[in-house]
Specification:
This is GIY-YIG domain-containing protein. With 151 residues, the protein is of the alpha+beta class. It contains four helices and four strands, in the order H-E-H-E-E-H-E-H.
């Protein structure tokens, strides 16, 4: 089966997921974005997808995009996505909602990813963390001649 081409709206986010992963343990699951909601879906389509993928019953980080595919908001769901996603409809012009789910054993990292994405992407509808920055991580290759191999 051919790999699905990610939507263009994810293009600024995917490299940041890979950058965030460099801070994680080697056995951490790879982060992925899942399409959770489209304002154009019928209610029946939403219910079918919700049941099929179980995406809104998990926890992690969610991304809200407008009709122009611009990221408007990055949020955190520590209980379920379902309750958090719908709570923004009064304040955010939501067309698509995509989620970055975390497995239970790793979900303590979700707040760090939320902060990381807001600081790097500066979504206009986020108010928290907007004036923070995270320095680019520069990793030098280890000097193999000076590695301590006695441990």
């Amino acid at each position: 089966m051919a790999e699905e081409i990610p939507p263009a709206r994810w293009s600024p986010v995917i490299p940041l997921l890979r950058a965030f992963e460099t801070y994680l343990a080697a056995d951490a699951p790879r982060l992925k974005i899942i399409h959770a909601n489209d304002i154009g879906w019928s209610y029946e389509e939403y219910l079918r997808r919700k049941q099929e993928f179980k995406i809104c019953s998990g926890y992690g980080v969610y991304l809200i995009f407008n009709a122009e595919e611009q990221l408007r908001y990055v949020g955190l769901a520590m209980n379920t996505f379902d309750a958090r996603i719908w709570s923004h409809d009064e304040h955010v012009n939501r067309h698509w909602t995509d989620v970055i789910p975390f497995e239970h054993g790793w979900y303590f990292l979700a707040p760090a990813l939320e902060f990381f994405l807001i600081a790097r992407l500066q979504p206009p509808d986020n108010t928290a963390y907007r004036n923070y920055t995270i320095a680019e991580r520069v990793q030098a290759a280890p000097d193999l001649g000076t590695l301590d191999t006695t441990r």
